[in-house]
Amino acid sequence: MGHFIGQYFHKESRLGKHLIIASLYIFVIVLEFSTPIPYVFGYLYTGPILLTNSWLGRRATFQATLAAVCLTMLNLVVPGGEVMKVSTIASRTIAVMALIVTGGLSDRLRRSEDAIALTRAKLEAQEELVKVREDFASTLTHDLKTPLLGAIETLKAFEAEKFGPVLPAQQKVLATMARSHQTSLQLLQTLLDIYRNDTEGLELNLAPVDLAILAEEAAATLSELAASRRVYLSLNYGNSDWRQSLWVKGDALQLQRVLINLLVNAINHCRRNGRVEVVLESQPSYQVVKILDAGAGIQPEEFSHLFERFYQGHSQRQTKGSGLGLYLSRQIIAAHGGIIWAENRIPMGAMFAFKLPVYPFQSSLTP
Q: 264, 312 in Cβ contact below 8 A?
């Protein structure tokens, strides 16, 4: 019923538009044919032509323009009885050209408006699709965290023998399951952070931070992982034989994530019995952290994609990652006003590094 009512009102509206345009044409025709031939009122047809283009479309605009041109020239001989002058013919020819230009330009304008409207609709649809996708990813990752946390706590309870004795072999299985769930939880958190950073921007809790302490803590956290992969972790201070402080103004938690991401990446790429080095260097304007591994290196075509989301590369690795760690690291370093990059080492291996602006008052913070 509503469909038929809509069609009825649409027809009524279209009929009303036709009547308005026809009335304007009649008004101009009366002016044209009731006055002497030298008086040219054909220019007034531009009004109904523009209305036709706006209301009725391209074909109707062509017909309206053609009718206006014919009526304007017809007034040269109708009603007749007057001497035709060259100036009169020229005036009406100019009027006809103006009407043709008006019809052509109005049609072009309409097509441009239609193209703009179509482009705007596509952009809005793409923006809506991106929003839906990001909301879905955010909701999914958030909702999956609860069962994972519950599973991890349950496994810890089993390991603590709260449900009865656990054999050593079972302890190993429980520990493996707990690590797997913890890895999944970290991946979900990374996904959630990335989508939040893309949509809302990265919020930083800035304070003076010593990169040397963060690097030591990150290396200690990953020592067990390195040992399981038979990779040796070491930390040095470049050209200095003494421990140094590398003060920057940053978010300690976020910078710690960058260090862990780069170290895990290096450990996963490093060959067994190889070495991963964390090199800390202090420069006049920047504090530099380099992570060196003894892996196969980076293929030339990979450099432009290393810090893209979900990119995993083609080199041989002991463990495949998610392709999110380097992307998140780039987000964090960029938010700190720093630079992150990668290079190949000679004769083998790769280096991932970042640099951050020196904290200007670091001398007062050094013990």
A: no
